[in-house]
Amino acid sequence: VQLVESGGGLVQPGRSLRLSCAASGFTFSSYDMSWYRQAPGKEREWVAGITSVGRSTMYADSMKGRFTISRDNAKKTVYLQMNSLKPEDTAVYYCNADSFTRSYWGQGTQVTVSS
After folding, report:
1. Is residue 28 within 8 Å of 76, Cβ to Cβ?
2. Contact assessment for residue 96 and residue 108, using Cβ atoms and an 8 Å cutoff
3. Sign (positive/negative) of CA torsion 63, 68, 71, 77?
4. Of the four, 20, 32, 43, 67, which is 20 to 30 A from 79 by CA?
């Protein structure tokens, strides 16, 4: 089982990034997917989630209107489009696959928002 995040980097405030998480080794379309993040010195927090067939999406309040989660089950990939980035969005971003009986995590990708 692998979840591999990509797309992180250094970006200026107000700009955008799109994160990707490529899955392998499990039935991707049967899993709800989420993005979490962990800033230095803080606990990991949930960012956004999408159901297994992509019909429902959910967001943490501070991300609503700025972040969009989506998935492509044919490509076994989940995305996080992040717009209007702020310095407080700086964190390591992780994707998570959850089927209520099993849960998998990626290794994370660093996002740094700074001028």
Report:
1. yes
2. no
3. negative
4. 43
For residues 37 and 100, what is the distance between their CA atoms, to the nearest angstrom? 20
**What confidence tier does 100 reach under pLDDT thresholds 50, 70, 90?**
confident
Residue 108 and residue 92 in contact, taking contact as beta carbons nearer than 8 Å: yes
Amino acid at the residue 10? L
The residue count for the chain:
115
Structure tokens of 32?
Answer: 């709800």
| Measured distance CA(77)–CA(25) in Å, rounded | 13
Percent of the chain with pLDDT over 70: 100
| Secondary structure in 3-state letters for 47-90 | EEEECCCCCCEEECHHHCCCEEEEEECCCCEEEEEECCCCHHHC
Q: What is the pLDDT of residue 84?
A: 96
57: left (phi over 0), alpha (psi -120 to 50) or beta: beta
Distance CA 89, CA 85 (A): 6
